[in-house]
Design a protein that fits this description.
The protein starts with 8 loop residues before the first helix and ends in a 5-residue tail after the last helix. The strands form 3 sheets. The protein has a 5-stranded mixed sheet. Strands 9-8-10-11-12 form a 5-stranded parallel sheet, sandwiched between helices. The relative contact order is 0.08. With about 500 residues, the chain is an alpha/beta fold. The chain is globular, with a radius of gyration of 25 Å. Strand 6 and strand 7 form a beta hairpin. It has 4 domains: about 45 residues; about 160 residues, Heat Shock Protein 90 (2-Layer Sandwich); about 120 residues, Rossmann fold (3-Layer(aba) Sandwich); about 110 residues, Four Helix Bundle (Hemerythrin (Met), subunit A) (Up-down Bundle), CATH 1.20.120.
């Protein structure tokens, strides 16, 4: 009898390393697709390229979660709530699945209501996974006709999604175990595990939503709705629609050995107006930083000659102002331990390849170039709130008052104060233990509560702290916690004053 092979420590340790290489390869795919001259493509070819681009970005998000999962962090959760533009998200869904449907000679159509919000505050990747699983099931079982996706709002402002197909519908056996793990019946006419509906229901539940399945006269219908309390964005900071010119003339060293990534980053930085010096290995990077003055260094980690982390440590030991150069690391090396090692080496900030948002990338460059060496740029723009600075945006707060009613504000503020006190106490405990799961859970609550009352700076800080906890970035977590705790204290004091002066509630 053959003995089963045990997975040893070496094999387990190799898994994160493999995902790193996968992420690097995926970054090349995305960068290569972005460099395609789309104007020269036929309509059919352009549709396939855009589908590949949209799918590769989704794959990159899933790879990030897989990497964290291999490090022992459960990231298969719909908890990374951030406001995002809804229309481009829907457009990506349409690009991905239209060509897939066309290859099967069926139709895929999206119908949207006129009152959809500009932004929604959900876990984008999780919403993408839900829709992709439902659409894929519809296309699998639909051999003729159309698969339709309808998106709208209920009278209670719940987000409604309905996926309909013109296939055979669900069998009686399928209905019995529809949302179970691998619940597809053995006699199913189509191959598959039945995991799609199981995953969709799990993620919908985590968004406090509900999902239902029906058989139509022709085909199947799957609908799910997400309550307004889960997605509604009371107020969000708008990113600038046009890029500023603050990087024009900045002298930047770019050290990147991969030819595709080097070309993409060079085009981005030159597009921002920077004056570039480009090298493709760690030895040349260290020599350039030792001999010349730069405003910023953009370094990869995995480079020939000398690793990026070693370059950073050697630069920090140079004499004079050269040791203080702001350093931004752009790398697919995103394992939590490696992030911490990179920050401890002296990097100012880390950006994960591939870069998929030019505006955010430019903002990060600007924050890094103006920040002090060793200062965490994630929290650099959020200073401690002076005692005379108002935390609450009154326009947002008055919207809350109008929605709830002035007579109910006494009770509501008391509940909010209890929530804020509980969060502040719990976070103090979790940060001392560097318990990332606890910090993620508490900041998830804080983002919602702060946003509801109009504490926009606190909401932004909590979002960044949540992100740092998701990435297991301990130095960022600690510095952001200090800012967050300070803002929480001032918000609680401001709410107490409001309660007393405007609603007659004693402090």
């Amino acid at each position: 009898m053959a003995k089963s092979k045990k997975v040893g420590t070496h094999e387990m340790a190799a898994q994160p390393l493999i995902t790193h290489d996968l992420q690097s390869a995926l970054a090349d795919v995305i960068n290569g697709l972005e460099l395609v001259d789309k104007a020269s493509l036929s309509p059919d070819a352009l549709m396939h390229v855009e589908r590949a681009i949209a799918s590769s970005h989704t794959l990159a998000d899933l790879m990030d979660r897989l990497s964290n999962s291999l490090m022992g962090h459960d990231t298969d959760l719909a908890t990374e709530n951030r406001a995002f533009q809804f229309a481009p998200f829907i457009a990506n869904i349409e690009r991905r699945w239209t060509s897939r449907a066309k290859a099967k000679s069926v139709g895929f159509k999206i119908s949207i209501s006129d009152d959809l919000p500009e932004k929604i505050g959900l876990d984008r990747t999780s919403l993408d996974r839900i829709l992709s699983n439902l659409i894929e099931n519809g296309l699998k079982f639909c051999d003729d006709g159309d698969v339709l996706l309808d998106i709208g709002l209920s009278h209670d402002n719940d987000l409604l999604f309905v996926v309909r197909d013109q296939g055979p519908g669900f069998s009686k056996d399928a209905i019995k175990s529809l949302f179970e793990y691998k619940g597809r019946p053995e006699n199913s006419p189509k191959k598959g595990s039945g995991l799609g509906l199981h995953i969709a229901k799990r993620l919908v539940n985590q968004m406090d939503g509900k999902i239902e399945v029906f058989n139509q006269q022709i085909g199947a219908l799957v609908s799910f709705e997400i309550p307004a309390s889960s997605w509604f964005v009371t107020h969000s900071k708008q990113l600038p629609q046009t890029l500023s010119s603050s990087l024009v003339g900045a002298k930047i060293l770019l050290a990147e050995d991969n030819a595709t990534s080097q070309m993409v980053l060079s085009k981005m930085l030159e597009g921002f107006g920077a004056i570039l010096t480009v090298v493709d290995n760690g030895i040349d990077a260290l020599a350039a930083l030792s001999e010349h003055a730069f405003d910023l260094a953009v370094l990869d980690i995995e480079m020939p000659g000398i690793l990026g982390t070693d370059v950073i440590m050697k630069v920090r030991k140079l004499d004079g102002v050269k040791a203080d150069i702001p350093i931004l690391v752009v790398s697919a090396y995103v394992m939590p331990g490696d992030r911490e090692k990179t920050m401890l080496a002296g990097a100012d900030h880390i950006v994960t390849k591939p870069i998929r948002d030019m505006i955010k990338f430019k903002l990060t460059l600007e924050e890094t170039i103006t920040g002090r060496r060793g200062q965490n740029t994630l929290g650099a723009t959020y200073q401690k709130a002076p005692t005379d600075t108002k935390m609450i945006d009154r326009s947002v707060f008055e919207t809350l008052v109008s929605a709830v009613g002035r007579d109910n504000m006494t009770e509501l503020i008391a509940k909010i104060q209890n929530d804020l006190k509980s969060v502040q106490t719990a976070m103090t405990d979790f940060i001392a233990k560097l318990a990332t799961e606890g910090i993620r859970a508490q900041t998830h609550i804080l983002v919602s509560v702060a946003g509801a009352v109009g504490a926009l700076n606190l909401q932004a800080t909590a979002e960044k702290l949540n992100h740092a906890a998701n990435q297991n970035q301990h130095p960022e977590m600690k510095s952001l916690y200090v800012i967050c705790d300070n803002q929480l204290t001032h918000l609680r004091a401001e709410l107490a004053t409001l309660a007393e002066t405007e609603f007659g509630t004693p402090k």
